[in-house]
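for the writeup, i need someone to sanity check this before i put it in the appendix. the sequnce is what the collaborator sent (i think, or maybe the updated version? ugh). structure was predicted straight from it, no edits. if anything looks off just tell me and ill rerun, i have time this weekend
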Amino acid sequence: MKNKKVAILFSGGKDSCLALHLAKQKNYDIKYLLTIIPKNFDSFMFHKPNLKLLKKQAQMLNLKLITQKTKGEKEKELKDLEKLILKIKKHINTIVIGGIVSSYQEKRIKKICDKLKLNIYPPLKNFKEKQIWDLLLKKNFKVILTKITCEGLEKNWLGKIIDNKTIKDLKKLSKKYKFRIDFEGGEAETAVLYMPGFKKQIKIKYNIKSEGKYRHWLDIKEVK
């Protein structure tokens, strides 16, 4: 396709940011960042990103951010995703997604894209767990954990940039406690504070909130 005008389904996490980077390397013309904002903290399809951080990420990438609210109810949130894509459909021909191995999200997004006669491009599809982190670290991505929901990850992991040293500790924990290191099982959520294309690294101030023994998340107060 010579005229690859695309929008990225964007959560601001490691997968969507890496998908964006790989799409750029393939000469896709990135036009928009598309983000669903669930009311429900545990949406079936989407992470609940911090809007302040999302806006800053879009600013650092010099891309237009388009958002759509949803209640986060199973299947109904897909109608809201369709509404979001319809906002910019006439300006693009492809949707880029950051899914790795889960077919749950990809199948549902593809159904919408087929209906709207849009292509879908999943650059991370079938990447290995280790491969994702190797590429993120090689490309100097600065990734933090923003939410944790599994045994083996203590809340002191939140807000810590994953580097070559901490990734070794993370791999050991994933092996011991049997969670996926790419977090495709929903064990954790991430945010990117720096990646190729950012004007500078984002800085945040936050509190940590907890609910029970294994559920912790960042309450981001300031982004600059």
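The radius of gyration is 17 Å. The domain at 5-121 is CATH 3.40.50.620 (Rossmann fold).
thx in advance!!
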